[in-house]
Each structure stands twice: as C-alpha cells, then as structure tokens.
Design brief:
Helix 4 (95-111) links the parallel strand 4 and strand 5. The protein is of the alpha/beta class and 169 residues long. The relative contact order is 0.20. A five-stranded parallel beta sheet has the order 3-2-1-4-5, with helices on both faces. The protein contains six helices and five strands; from the N terminus they run βαβαβαβαβαα. The protein has a single domain (4-124), classed as Rossmann fold (3-Layer(aba) Sandwich). The protein has helices at residues 16-26, 48-62, 76-83, 95-111, 131-139, 150-163; strands spanning 4-9, 31-37, 67-72, 87-92, 116-121.
C-alpha cells in the first residue's frame, strides 16, 4: 500500500516557498498530489486553469517523479478521500499561519480522522514569502524575482502588463 499525500492550495502564483514544501513533502510520501483549488475568499490573479499549468510547469522543472498536479473545487477532505490520501501536507511560515492551520486541521479531523495533517515549517529564507505579497509587490512595479522562479515572474509581469500597474511616483 502506497502512502499518498495531498498538498492543497490556490498557488496564485506558485512561489519558491510552495516549491520548497512540494520538494520536501515529496520525500515523505510515495505519491504527492498538489491540489490546485479555487478559494472564494481570495481574488486570484490567474484562472484555475492558468494556476494548474503554472504549478505543473514548476513541478516538471523540479524533476520529481512522484509528484502530480490536479485541480479541484470541492471540500478538501472529500477530495483527499477520492484521491486515496492518508496525509494533508501544509506549510507554515509564522504564528498567524499556525493559528489558521490548527483550526483547519481540527475541523478536517472531525470530517475524517483517518487522514492526518502534517505541518512543514518553511525554510527560514523563504518564510516571508506569500503569494498575496508577491502580487502586491508586482502590482506596484517591484522585483519579485527573489520570490518566484523566472518562469512565474515572467507570467506575473505579463499579467500585470495586461491589467495595469498600481501607484505612481
């Protein structure tokens, strides 16, 4: 029986922090599914399809044979069950992340206590990176190169050229 893990997120855009969790999470399981989801509470810059393609391209560059990407728009635990996952992998950057993730893990355990939530602490050098902040920096013309891969940077810059930058000096 193989151990299947699920790393869910909106990945809007996928960052070096996400890539770190994917790389490290892949070592913990026989098969890691990166689940790209919609989140009605967030206002995504990229469509679900674009984010799926972006994450798949990043995973291909990492050359991780046991990692796959799929999209979903369902209750996380229901999706995890359909995928045969025994583990949900979540990345933590700070105390604020822990409080939210702790609550989510508790609710998920109530829904299905056979699926464990495993928290991975973000690499210290990657802890400040958040997709929301990456988008904000890019929207105001800042350099997001340190936070995302060159391919993702190019996609974000191209999107901002279409939607327009914010702020003027």
């Amino acid at each position: 029986m193989s151990r299947i893990g699920l790393y869910p997120g909106t990945f809007d855009p996928v960052t070096r922090g996400h890539a770190d969790i994917i790389r490290r999470g892949a070592k913990l399981v026989d098969r890691l599914i990166v689940g790209v989801t919609t989140n009605s509470a967030k206002d995504p810059m990229f469509t679900a399809e674009e984010r799926l393609e972006m994450v798949a391209a990043e995973i291909a560059r990492m050359d991780l044979a046991n990692v796959e990407v799929t999209g979903f728009n369902a209750l996380l635990m229901k999706f995890a069950e359909t995928q045969g996952a025994s583990m949900i992998i979540r990345g933590l950057r700070a105390v604020a992340d822990f409080e939210y993730e702790y609550q989510m893990a508790g609710m998920n355990q109530q829904l299905n206590d056979r699926i464990e939530t495993v928290f991975l602490m973000a690499d210290v050098s990657l802890q400040p990176i958040a997709s929301k902040l990456v988008k904000e920096i890019a929207l105001f013309g800042g350099d997001i190169g340190p936070f995302v891969s060159p391919a993702v940077r190019d996609q974000v810059v191209a999107r901002i050229e279409r939607i327009g930058r914010k702020g003027t000096l």
